[in-house]
Write a structure and sequence with these properties.
Length: 273
């Protein structure tokens, strides 16, 4: 009993949102009757559920990202929805209508359309996905944050830098001395990042201006990686203002980034470097 009490006091307050969920309803396309027991699952993952007596299903604790959602039931065509997006702390609603089939037919594949307006958001939140980060000309998390509205050099909405709380995979990473983050996250390791600038939930604490919530990638069986390098120097015609500006050294500013991920032993030992 004493151990459980300690868990509630010290562990639970440190948990922040790191996953999302998918819900919806599965019905017959002709009769609109609920399909009880229909299997709903995410391809290449262990996440799935079955429809209840009303045709409703719910898949919890899904890491943020893009997935391929499958709906299958005996006597009906398989239904596949690609590019299904799941965000931290938010619910993705997907309703499915299955076509009855007496013969084995090809699967019905539908490409999920992006949400122009997210009805689940209860606060001012900027969601930066892994796909978006890969297209941005940035190298650091601070550069990504500076591209968001209201965030300038560690200050959010005009507040002090120590009024922003940083969370990584549900663990607070805020320096108690100056309010900055105590670790640097490689941009290639980020699965999703959220900048919450107002009315954040009670699960987040020790913040006045806003929350930076980051979730990192998990290991997978797919092997891959990336290699980024850049170098250069500053050039200006105002030599009277800048010392040694006429001396050009293309290696004075440089950065090297190497990232590898994949399976060392498939389905047993995963790695990310």
């Amino acid at each position: 009993m004493f151990k459980k009490l300690l868990y509630l006091i010290f562990i639970l307050p440190l948990l922040a949102g790191t996953t999302g969920k998918i819900k919806g309803k599965v019905v017959d396309s002709q009769t609109s009757e609920p399909l009880i027991g229909c299997n709903i699952y995410l391809s290449s993952t262990n996440y799935g559920a079955s429809a209840d007596i009303n045709g409703n299903y719910l898949i919890l604790n899904i890491p943020a990202g893009l997935y391929e959602l499958h709906a299958s039931m005996i006597g009906y065509d398989d239904y596949i929805i690609t590019n299904t997006e799941v965000n931290i702390d938010l619910t993705t609603t997907i309703n499915v209508s299955l076509n009855e089939s007496s013969l084995e037919m090809e699967s019905v594949v539908v490409n999920a359309t992006p949400k122009l307006i997210n009805k689940n958001l209860t606060s001012t939140t900027a969601i930066i996905t892994q796909k978006t980060i890969s297209k941005l000309p940035v190298n650091e998390v601070s550069e990504i944050l500076n591209l968001q509205a209201g965030f300038v050099d560690g200050h959010l909405r005009g507040g002090r830098s120590n009024e922003v709380a940083y969370w990584v995979d549900g663990i607070p990473m805020t320096d108690a001395y100056d309010g900055s983050t105590i670790i640097d996250i490689n941009k290639d390791a980020i699965r999703e990042m959220q900048l919450i600038s107002g009315s954040f939930n009670a699960e987040y604490g020790q913040a006045m201006s806003g929350i930076v919530n980051i979730t990192t990638n998990e290991g997978s069986n797919k092997f891959g990686g990336s290699f980024d390098i850049y170098s250069g120097d500053f050039i200006s015609g105002h030599s009277n203002l800048y010392t040694n500006i006429n001396h050009i050294d293309l290696l004075s500013t440089h950065n090297l980034n190497f990232n590898v991920h994949g399976s060392i032993i498939k389905c047993r030992l995963l790695s990310r470097l």
